[in-house]
Write a structure and sequence with these properties.
The complex is a heterodimer of chains A (130) and B (142). Chain A has 130 residues and is mainly β. Chain A has one domain (19-128). Chain A contains one helix and 13 strands. In chain A, a hairpin with a 4-residue loop joins strand 11 (100-106) and strand 12 (111-114). The longest helix of chain A is centred in the N-terminal third of the chain and has 13 residues, at 2-14. Chain A starts with a helix and ends with a strand. With 142 residues, chain B is an alpha+beta fold. Chain B has a single domain (2-141), classed as Immunoglobulin-like. Chain B has three helices and nine strands; from the N terminus they run H-H-E-E-E-E-E-E-E-E-H-E. Chain B has helices spanning 2-12, 22-25, 124-131, and strands at residues 36-43, 54-57, 60-64, 69-76, 78-84, 92-96, 101-110, 115-122, 135-136. The chains are: A mainly beta (130), B alpha+beta (142). The A-B interface holds A 8, 11-12, 14-16, 79-81, 83, 87-91, 106-109 and B 79-81, 87-88, 90-95, 109-112, 116, 118-124.
């Protein structure tokens, strides 16, 4: 009986994930295209949102610089999608300060979502010239 | 016992989509208008088949979350929100560029009382791997 109640509570909690932490942010677009592209040379695990669940930035994935926010440079995935999830699911771009993943830019919400341990996560990548 | 299983199977069959498969129709679909992009919706799992909520795009109904079914809509470039209301509502937000194709998987997630549909944005390679087994539901195109 207790196990059943526990299972119900766990299921209930899973249905009530908190909203992604974010604050309004202004993206200054890169112009003119084509923009700089980076290729990730080693997979990196980064935590997301208030729960801090892990997302993996895959090795070999490519990202193109689309602009800049106050926190860093904004990179959009090429030929793939990247999302972050809390109460809802949001398309997201990477925000890098040099090689550190500081958070995510949510293009629909026009907001920055900090990565809880982001500044400690370094991303290994090589640059491709346009 | 066998009769019960057979009855359950018969009850579930109408709940799943039927029609031509993705591979049969994809090459016959009309090209998008240059100012528009295309958004595909599909539900690969028959788990919780009785749960088939309406799927909305920016608040407008575009179809239902029918197991093993897919459909698409063409929309002007911009920001979009997908939702499927069940016991709770989980929304998906994404951008759409001109001529871009987006793929939204409608995943079933079991909840306290009933299942709920979670829309997920997936990339083309992953989506096409799953879409090959999906049946085209033309109704939302009308």
């Amino acid at each position: 009986m207790r196990k059943g109640v526990l299972l119900l509570i766990v299921l209930g909690l899973a249905a009530c994930a908190p909203e992604i932490t974010r604050r309004p942010s202004q993206l200054t677009s890169t112009a003119p295209p084509p923009a700089e592209t980076i290729e990730v040379t080693r997979a990196a695990k980064v935590s997301v949102g208030p729960v801090g669940y892990a997302r993996v930035i895959p090795q070999g994935s490519t990202w193109t610089r689309v602009g800049r926010v106050a926190e860093g440079d904004v990179y959009k995935p090429l030929d793939s999608v990247f999302t972050v999830e809390g109460a809802h699911v949001h398309e997201a771009y990477l925000v890098l300060a040099d090689d550190r993943i500081v958070g995510f830019y949510l293009p629909v919400e026009k907001a920055f979502s900090p990565a809880p341990d982001g500044p400690n996560t370094r991303l290994a990548f090589k640059r491709r010239q346009p | 016992m066998r009769r019960v299983l057979l009855l359950l199977l018969v009850m579930l069959l109408p709940a799943c989509a039927s029609g031509p498969k993705y591979g049969e129709v994809v090459s016959t679909l009309p090209a998008t208008n240059p100012s528009q992009g295309r958004i595909y919706f599909y539900r690969p799992s028959a788990l919780g088949a009785a749960v088939q909520p309406d799927v909305t795009l920016n608040g407008q109904k575009v179809g239902t979350a029918k197991p093993h079914g897919f459909y698409y809509v063409d929309r002007v470039a911009g920001n979009y929100t997908v939702a499927a209301s069940t016991e709770t509502e989980k929304k998906l937000t994404f951008t759409l560029d001109p001529k871009q194709e987006r793929f939204v998987r409608l995943k079933i997630q079991m909840g306290l009382m009933v299942g709920r549909i979670v829309p997920e944005l997936v990339d083309r390679a992953e989506a096409e791997g799953e879409l090959k087994d999906m049946s085209y539901i033309a109704e939302p195109l009308k």
